[in-house]
Amino acid sequence: MPLTDRLPSPSPGSINAKITHFACIRCGWEAPVDDHLEGCARCRSEGHAASMRPVYSGLSFNPKDATDFSDWLAYPDHPRLGQGNTPVVELPRLAAALGVSTLSVKIEGANPTGSHKDRMSALAVARALDIGAQTVVAASSGNAGASIAAYCGAVGLKCVIVTTSKMNPNWRRAIEFHGARLEYAPSVQARWHLVEERTRKGEWYPVTNFCMPAVGSNPFGVDGYRTVSFEIYRQCNPLPTDILVPTSRGDLLWGLARGFADLEAAGCIDHSPKLHAIEPFPRITRVLEGSDYRDSFPGESAMTSLGGSTVCFQALKALDLSGGTALPVEQSDVKDDQRLLARNGLYLELSCAAALTGLRKAARNEVVKADARVMLIGTSHGYKEIPEVMQ
Ligand SMILES: [Zn+2]
To answer: 26 CA to middle of ligand 1, Å?
Structure first.
C-alpha cells in the first residue's frame, strides 16, 4: 500500500464567517456563498461572462501587524507548504538603465512549487476539502498543474491535470510524482470540454476555467492572490506606483486588484498602484482598442504560461480599477531580457521575464514615468524550462 493511503485525511477547515455573500464583478448581482464556477448566472444569461467574488464584511485589522493574512482569506485554515511571504528584490542598476526611480521584483518563484500558483492552489484545495470533493481537476500547461497536484498530494485528495502533449517533461514529472494523473487533450478548448463534461457529472471539482466565453479560475483560489498585495503593502514603504504583471486570463491581476481594494477600504492605502498587464501577443490590448472581450484572440508564443486566445472580464476590471494598461511584448525581446535578468542574479521563466520587456516599452511610451517606483511580479523561476524549446 502506498504511504499516502495510510495517512489520515485532514479535516476540512471552516469557511471564513466574514464572507457574507458573492457578487458579480461586472453587474454587481449578489448571490449566496457557492462555487459559481461558471461566473455570474445573470451575465451568462445575457451572453456575457464575468467572475463572481467573495464579499467580506469587517476586515478590520492592519495587515502590517499580521504575521500572515489567514483571517482575510476564505479558509483561514488552509493547507500550508510554505507558500507566501515571498521576498522583494531591488534591481538598482536596471532601474537606472531603464530610467525609472526604483525597480524591484516580487520573487514568486520562491513559493514551494516555484510559482505564484501555490497561493491559488492552497485556497482551492481548502474549498475542495470543505465541500467533500473527491477529485480536483485543472486544465494546465504547467505551473498550475504542478502546484495543484502538490497541494492535493499534501491533503490526500485525488487530482487530475488535463493538458496537451506539448507539456514540458519537467512539469509532467513533478505532477506525476505528486500523485496526480495526467490526461491529454488535443487543444486548450478540448481540455476545457473534458473538464466541463466531468464537472457536470459531479466527478471532478475544477480549479481552472472550463467555460466559453471564459471566466476566471475557481473564485476561492483566485481570492488567494490578494495575499500578494497584502505582502507588498507590508514590504514596501512607499508602495510601488506601477506593478507589471505577466498575464493570460488575469487571475493574478484580478487578485492583486482586489487585495489593493481591500487595503483601500480598510484605510491602509489611499489608492492602488497602477497594475499593467503584460501579454505575449495583443489580446487585452485589442479589447482596450475596441474589440469585444468575448472574441477570440489567437496567437503563438513560447511564453507557455501566458498562452490562450481568450480575455476574461476580470483582467479588464483590474486595469480599470487601478488605472493601468496592457502591453504586448515581442518574444525575441523577452528572450534578451530573460538573459539580462539572469545576469543580474534572477533566473526567471520566459513568461515572467516578459514583465521587464513590458517595462522597457512602458518607459519608452511614458506609460511609466521617470519618477515611477516599479515592481515586476516575478511569477516563476526558470529552472523548469527545457533548453531545446527555449533557444
Ligand atoms: Zn453579472
So the answer is: 5
